[in-house]
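Q: Joint fold for the lines below.
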Amino acid sequence: MQIDIGKNIEDMSMQIIEKEIGKHQYTGSEWAIVKRVIHTTADFDFAKKNKIIFHQTAIQNGINALKIGCELVVDVNGVIGGLHKKNLIDFKVNVICNISNTMVRDKAKKYNKTISQMSMRESIMHMNDGIIAIGNAPTALIEVVKMCNEKVIKPKLIVGIPVGFISATESKEMLRKSKVPFITNAGRKGGSACAAAIINALFRLMM
Amino acid sequence: MQIDIGKNIEDMSMQIIEKEIGKHQYTGSEWAIVKRVIHTTADFDFAKKNKIIFHQTAIQNGINALKIGCELVVDVNGVIGGLHKKNLIDFKVNVICNISNTMVRDKAKKYNKTISQMSMRESIMHMNDGIIAIGNAPTALIEVVKMCNEKVIKPKLIVGIPVGFISATESKEMLRKSKVPFITNAGRKGGSACAAAIINALFRLMM
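A: Joint structure:
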């Protein structure tokens, strides 16, 4: 019999997480997402109450959007690296990342913005009814929340889990206060692997 | 005056890390690397004594290899996503990642190995005098340590910081016991962003 060793390792890892965490405060589908972030980071901090925070329609919105092959705008290539490619192909989800676009770099310099901010502005036409996943740059998250508040864009979901010491915590607070469906976390932690894990978990939830 | 906001944010982040961590047990060049891992993860755990572990010639070996444009074999695309592309271009460092190679997937199935293991075997010809950076798969790290122990390959440095619940800790212990110069950590934590941060820090150290 052919065994998928990789799959086996993943299943065993999830069992260890379940066992060591024990009781938690998340709902079933929330926990499926939180568990995948922990699997990606080996950081049990994410299991604490209200460490990962879900807007009430976020999970369903995310699933519905992915199911019909929405566009997915990400802030850095690291998020793309962590995404399960087969899901993207199967559901015809197009991923957009403008961070390495040289034109974006030139514009950022010209307008005295961060490259991350400018790359979000450059991706505007892909954001309506799409998903935006920010794993690295707080300034990228602040920019998209501003665009939502100004009604420039209307995404179905923002996954906002940038990491860092300057503005990361604040950018996530801004996201929580906005009216756009979100999945985010409290505090400085996060990262592109976390953002990718959340998207991967949403795909799983629809299967 | 034109200000590089991104650079400014990074400098301020580093100052916060310095201030909040205070005293630590690392040497100057070790700390430059550890600090960059903390900057990437916002996880102060990495500052603890012996959390990140350095073979005595690892840093110098890594710098020397990158300086002359060595090859860099990585286990997942997420590591590539986190690397500063300008450094790679400036120093003509060629990055190899075979994880998405369909031939590797077929071979892994045939020989009942993980895709990560097989992708390392597939990259053998790039490993001598090169750097290997593993941020995701313990099985990839185990495979390269085995190849070193069997004298099949002789890399200048292995950065082994895979994350996970099955074999991650053990794979890093194996690496520490081998004779190849290494940078690794103790425990389950790690990730592709950490592996990339270490390589980025090595580039910085040579400037």
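Q: Anything notable?
A: The beta strands of chain A are 52-54, 71-74, 94-96, 131-134, 157-160, 182-185. Chain A is about 50% helix and 10% strand.
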